[in-house]
Design a protein that fits this description.
A 5-stranded antiparallel β-sheet has the order 6-5-4-3-7, covered by helices on one side. The protein is of the alpha+beta class and about 300 residues long. Helix 1 packs across helix 3 and helix 1 packs across helix 4. It contains 9 helices and 11 strands. Strand 3 and strand 4 form a beta hairpin. The chain has 3 domains: about 100 residues; about 80 residues, SH3 type barrels (Roll); about 80 residues, Alpha-Beta Plaits (2-Layer Sandwich).
Length: about 300
């Protein structure tokens, strides 16, 4: 349960962020219109305390622009981008704060279950922060027995309701991806390692759809012809950050993406059924044709 005071911090930060420039009087009026206020004005002293707390908790800096009519703004609002950890945490807290007011409607709100073991996350995060290795026992879905080995943890990623650890293990030149739900046992070793200066988690996955990074598949332009009924869905939730619209008609829209068409991307394309057609590259189009032909055989 999110605390009442934390809810107020989240409310203030969200109010300033959403307004993109707001005076103290406007903030106070919005405060009075909110149930959190209980009809009591927001004092300037309390406002200043909350400003300091917001910076300490979220790293968000609230400035007053005197030349803009003494309006308050979040100076580093780029930190609230959805792909940024601060942004993700802030939006999670914002949603939690709002939903808490509707706890009585809990049976009317259906949520997705994301597999997570807090002790695993804590152990991994501590190892990443301290640059120490981990001894993991891992049971892949494709192997009959679990294996144990030491890894250098680089980063974590969430994809389709699962957490993944990206780590370097002996015997491999590049980092590997390990699903946390397949880790049977995890133990910190205390052994130090040097985090590679040239490794960037964002750059590592830049050309990927999800968590598959296949060195044999290079990033290239992919063009998809999407039926009109599905276009709004792809506009509101792009398949990839490189997604662009290159042609629009009443019946379809052609999207272009610059990425590596890995297996998880293939599965996403297949999930769109008859509403998508791969136009290019030719080899990927032919691969999808092969997949569809095999599916047709299953139903004959």
């Amino acid at each position: 349960m999110i605390s009442n005071l934390l809810s107020k911090y989240v409310w203030l930060a969200e109010t300033i962020y959403s307004a993109n420039g707001i005076t103290f009087a406007e903030i106070n009026q919005k405060w009075l219109d909110n149930d959190l206020s209980e009809g009591i004005n927001l004092s300037k002293r309390t406002f200043q305390k909350w400003k300091i707390a917001i910076e300490e908790l979220f790293g968000l800096i609230i400035d007053c622009e005197r030349k803009n009519g003494y309006r308050f703004v979040i100076r580093n609002k780029e930190d609230l981008h959805p792909d940024n950890l601060t942004g993700w945490l802030f939006r999670t807290l914002t949603l939690s704060s709002k939903l808490e007011r509707y706890k009585s409607l809990g049976s009317y709100i259906l949520l997705e279950d994301i597999f997570v073991k807090e002790d695993l996350l804590t152990t991994i995060l501590e190892a990443i922060r301290n640059n120490t290795t981990l001894l993991i026992t891992y049971k892949s879905f494709y192997r009959d027995e679990a294996t144990s080995f030491e890894v250098e943890p680089y980063c974590l990623k969430i994809f389709q309701q699962r957490w993944y650890l990206i780590a370097k293990s002996s015997g491999f030149e590049t980092p590997r991806i390990y699903a946390l739900d397949r880790i049977v046992h995890l133990q910190p070793t205390g052994n130090p390692f040097t985090y590679p200066k040239d490794f960037s988690p964002a750059r590592f996955f830049a050309s990927s759809y999800g968590v598959i990074v296949d060195e044999t598949i290079e990033a290239e332009n992919i063009e998809l012809k999407i039926g009109a009924s599905q276009v709004p869905y792809l506009r509101s939730l792009p398949l990839h950050h490189s997604q662009q619209e290159v042609e629009q008609t009443e019946k379809y829209t052609i999207f272009r993406l610059r990425m590596a068409p890995t297996f998880d991307f293939e599965q996403q394309i297949l999930s769109l059924g008859e509403y998508v057609e791969v136009l290019s590259p030719l080899w990927f189009r032919e691969r999808m044709v092969h997949r569809i032909e095999k599916m047709m055989k299953q139903y004959k």
